């Protein structure tokens, strides 16, 4: 598949501080790609460099093979949906949507038709003559989307576009965004700090932290097979246990769990000594034959789920997540419980 | 907390301030409608001094002075607004550049320098470089001292405009110039208009600097009024003053209204 965007050893410095450290990344054509990370991780800076609002300090940004790193934003066939929408307050909704086409020199009749068509796609035809201030947040969001898509960009950049909406609307918009991406076939690069947004919409996710890429992969890959402690911790909830690792064959490592029982994991033979082991709470279950022993401290009731907060013999906390069911027989708080780990659920992490 | 009205003496102090500030204006306005030729004795309501301003013996002199004042004010306000807009773009949107603080001080310095010093300095300057004083020197001087007055509301407005509007325009294929013309300038308009109006009033109203650089035979309305008053105050001066007061008050109100409207929509 062709690459829509190739980022090649891009570095961004602001004065003495380095915001991005030699970052390389390829994003395929027609992909819904998400840059995920906590605030200050460099995801927005990367997006702004693709848009052309920030200059690269070094490296190349290629759009379908052409280096665009030194082009001004108006010469890059990419459009942005801004976090605060940035709709022009003095123009009608229709003029906002038609603005990009106007600047490209498309004549009035054609751009009115195209803008009207875009408004239809986002279900806002009835609002064409209103000013942005007369629309609700969700409607402004759709106008921003229609405006960015109207000039048919080759890549659409979305900078935390859902963060200003309330929860219900955010969930609907996720669905619509994904659908829009499929329908238009345009590559979407989506920036967010919300892992749920990232997991539900993306074809692939790049997890970023402190100006570096931590892991790139599908939602399933980064959730199930995080390759370091940051990713395991940032995506979803996880238990991190300190274990003693010892290679026993070419691709098998034996780890000693707190309490003394052992577990054999597929892992490269380099792993030896003290390591972090990640186990998702939903992959643990109560089991009288279980290999881990812990003391149940308390039970958190979450409606559909229960969280059992327990503590292992070495003092490290352990969370077990189980479905709430009338048939679940719960141990009492303070009791000793035995826990089993689902086959293949434990993962050794690089720190 | 108790309201400010409850402080002892609040009412008395307020009244004294209001009287000192506005009683003279009120007297001038009321006596401009005086039917008698005396400036202190009331002779019944009349429009005669207004008619005198436009048709009386001094009418041609005041007419010419008013025309000079208006054309200078329009030209000076326009030039000062253009310069102030460019300056505010550099100061607010230009990022951190060397000499930014110094530039800010230089733009606003004319507000701090005593006007008489500016006046003397300008006269010496024009004499030194050999420009003949007259309409042109008044215009140059007015442009110079109007810049900070135009700058303040324009820069304040620009500071309130988020930079993402220009970014959105650039992102949607607008060049720098077109992003400015189609997006930033319309958003700045309330500040620009109120800067222009302020500069216009300041120019219309200036006496000290104008008096120094105007040269012989050249009059603006304030210098013409001063010249006339030197031979004794006549009621027609009150009528002219009232007219100028009216013009200033309307423009200030207009400027305030435009600014307020601009603040409501981002």
Automatic annotation (TrEMBL), chain A:
Class of this enzyme: translocase
Swiss-Prot/TrEMBL catalytic activity: ATP + H2O + polyamine-[polyamine-binding protein]Side 1 = ADP + phosphate + polyamineSide 2 + [polyamine-binding protein]Side 1
Keywords: ATP-binding, Cell membrane, Membrane, Nucleotide-binding, Translocase, Transport
Endpoints of the signal sequence: none
All residue ranges annotated as the ABC transporter domain in the record: 5-235
One GO MF term: ATP binding
Protein name as it appears in the record: Spermidine/putrescine import ATP-binding protein PotA
Organism annotation: Pseudogemmobacter lacusdianii
Lineage start: Bacteria, Pseudomonadati, Pseudomonadota, Alphaproteobacteria, Rhodobacterales
Gene it is expressed from: potA
TrEMBL record, chain B:
Subcellular location: Cell inner membrane; Cell membrane
Bilayer-crossing regions: 7-33, 70-92, 104-129, 135-158, 179-202, 237-258
Domain ABC transmembrane type-1 stretches: 66-255
Keyword Cell membrane attributed: yes
Keyword list, A-Z: Cell inner membrane, Cell membrane, Membrane, Transmembrane, Transmembrane helix, Transport
Pfam annotation, one family: BPD_transp_1
Topological category with respect to the lipid bilayer: Multi-pass membrane protein
Superkingdom, taxonomy of origin: Bacteria
Role according to the record: Required for the activity of the bacterial periplasmic transport system of putrescine and spermidine.
Recorded family membership: Belongs to the binding-protein-dependent transport system permease family. CysTW subfamily.
Name of the protein this chain belongs to: Spermidine/putrescine transport system permease protein PotC
